[in-house]
Design brief:
Shape: globular
Number of strands: 0
Number of domains: 1
Distance between the termini: 45 Å
Largest sheet: none
CATH superfamily: MFS general substrate transporter like domains
Number of helices: 14
Strand content: under 5%
Order of helices and strands: HHHHHHHHHHHHHH
C-alpha cells in the first residue's frame, strides 16, 4: 500500500515562492518609500514585477519535462534567490531601474515554482487530502513571506543593506531543498515531441470543459487578489505608523494570513468551494470598508491589516483547492494546467495594484481603500449570482437527462 507524503511537508516546499513574494509585497515597497518614491510609482514597479505571474504560462510547461517536479523546485528557487539578492542590493544603493529589471527576471524564474508545486501535489497526494495540503501550502507561502519581510524591514531600518540582500537569497533558496523528502516517482522517459503532444492534448481537453471557464472567471476577478498586501508597507506614513508598527503588522498579518489559509484548508472540506471563493471577496470588502470609515491611525493600520490578511489567506486556500479540483488526477500536464489557473488568479493582482495605486494618487489612502473594497464587493456579488444560475441550469439539464433515460427504459 502506497504511503503518501504528510500534508504539512508541502508548507515547507512552498516557502521559496512565498519568500520571494514577501520581498516584493513588503520589503521592497518599504525600502522604496523610505527612498522617497511616490506610492503610485511603487505600485507601478510592483505591477511590473508581478507581470510574469500572468505570462509564465508560456514557459511553465517546462516543469512537466525531463526532471522530477521536486528537482525543478530546487533549481528554480536557487536561480530566483541569486537574482533577487542582487536586485535588492542594487535597490538599496538607489539603482531602481536596474533593480527592477533583475526583480522581473527573478519573477520569471520564481513563478514556475508554483507550477511545479501544484503539479507535485496533484501527482502524489490523494484527492481527499488535497484541501488540507492546499491549506498547508498556502500557509507555507504566507509564513515565509512574513519571515523574509520582517527580517528585511529590520535590516533596512538598521541600514544593513548587505545583510538584507544575503537574507533575501538564503530565505528564498534554502526551504526548497525540503522537496527532496517528497517521494515522487521518476518521470516516464519520453521523447520531446510526443510529450509535447500529450501535454497539448490534455490542455485542449481541459479548455473544452465549461466548468474550467467558470473557474477562470472566478480567478480573473478582483476577488481574493489581496492587492493591498503589496501596498500596506508603503502607506504606513498615511496612518502615522512607525517602523515598529510596520514590522508588527508584517508579523501579525503574515501569521494571520497563514492561519486563514490553514483554517480555510479544513473549512473547505465541509463547504462548497465555489461559493467560498466569492464569500471571501465579500469578507475582504467588509474589512476594507471598516478601514475606510475608521480614523487614519496606527491602530486602524494594525487591526485592518491583520483582518485583511486573515480573509486573504482564506481566499488563497479556496483558490488552490478549487484549482486542484479543476486540474484533476495524474496527468502529463498537471503542472501546465495548474499554471493556467495560477496565471489567471495573478491577473487581478497586477491590475488591482494599478487600480489601488491610482486611487491613492487621486484621493489619498481612502481612495485606495475604496477602490479595493468596491472591486471586491461588486465582483463577489456578480460571481455568486453566476454560480447559482449555472448550478441551477446544470441541475435542470441533469434532471431532464435522467427523465429521458427513464422514459427510454419504460
Amino acid at each position: 500500500m502506497r504511503r503518501y507524503p504528510r500534508a504539512w511537508l508541502f508548507g515547507i516546499v512552498a516557502m521559496p515562492y512565498g519568500s520571494f513574494n514577501g520581498v516584493i509585497a513588503v520589503a521592497l515597497p518599504y525600502l522604496l518609500r523610505r527612498q522617497g518614491l511616490a506610492v503610485e510609482r511603487i505600485a507601478a514597479i510592483a505591477a511590473l514585477v508581478q507581470a510574469p505571474a500572468i505570462w509564465y504560462i508560456l514557459w511553465a510547461p517546462a516543469v512537466d519535462f525531463h526532471f522530477r517536479r521536486r528537482t525543478w523546485i530546487i533549481v528554480l528557487s536557487l536561480v530566483t534567490a541569486a537574482c533577487a539578492a542582487a536586485a535588492f542590493a542594487l535597490a538599496s544603493r538607489g539603482s531602481i531601474r536596474a533593480a527592477t529589471m533583475l526583480f522581473v527576471l527573478a519573477s520569471v524564474f520564481c513563478q514556475p515554482v508554483s507550477s511545479a508545486l501544484g503539479g507535485l501535489v496533484a501527482s502524489v497526494m490523494p484527492l481527499a487530502a488535497q484541501d488540507r495540503t492546499a491549506g498547508f501550502s498556502q500557509a507555507g507561502i504566507l509564513g515565509a513571506g512574513v519571515i523574509v519581510s520582517g527580517v528585511i524591514v529590520v535590516f533596512i531600518d538598521r541600514a544593513w543593506p548587505t545583510a538584507a540582500a544575503l537574507s533575501v537569497g538564503l530565505l528564498i533558496a534554502l526551504p526548497g531543498f525540503a522537496a527532496l523528502i517528497v517521494d515522487e516517482p521518476p518521470p516516464r522517459a519520453s521523447r520531446t515531441l510526443p510529450h509535447l503532444r500529450s501535454i497539448a492534448r490534455d490542455v485542449l481537453l481541459a479548455v473544452r470543459r465549461p466548468i474550467n471557464w467558470l473557474g477562470i472567471a472566478l480567478f480573473v476577478s478582483p476577488v481574493g487578489a489581496g492587492a493591498l498586501m503589496n501596498l500596506f508597507s508603503s502607506v504606513a506614513p498615511d496612518f502615522k505608523a512607525s517602523s515598529t508598527i510596520v514590522v508588527t503588522v508584517v508579523a501579525v498579518a503574515g501569521a494571520l494570513t497563514a492561519c486563514g489559509a490553514l483554517v480555510g484548508g479544513y473549512v473547505l472540506e465541509h463547504i462548497d468551494r465555489w461559493r467560498a471563493y466569492p464569500i471571501a471577496g465579500l469578507l475582504t470588502a467588509a474589512v476594507v470598508g471598516g478601514m475606510l470609515l475608521a480614523p487614519l491611525t496606527a491602530a486602524t493600520y494594525l487591526i485592518g491589516g491583520a483582518l485583511y490578511a486573515l480573509v486573504t489567506g482564506f481566499a488563497y486556500a479556496a483558490y488552490m483547492a478549487l484549482a486542484l479540483e479543476l486540474v484533476g488526477g495524474v496527468s502529463t500536464a498537471n503542472s501546465t494546467l495548474f499554471t493556467l489557473f495560477t496565471a489567471a488568479v495573478n491577473i487581478p493582482v497586477v491590475y488591482m495594484l494599478r487600480v489601488d495605486g491610482a486611487g491613492h494618487a487621486r484621493f489619498g489612502v481612502r481612495g485606495m481603500l475604496a477602490a479595493d473594497g468596491i472591486a471586491n464587493a461588486l465582483a463577489a456579488l456578480v460571481l455568486l449570482v453566476l454560480i447559482m444560475r449555472l448550478r441551477a441550469t446544470a441541475a435542470m439539464l441533469r434532471t431532464r437527462e435522467l427523465s429521458a433515460q427513464r422514459g427510454e427504459a419504460c
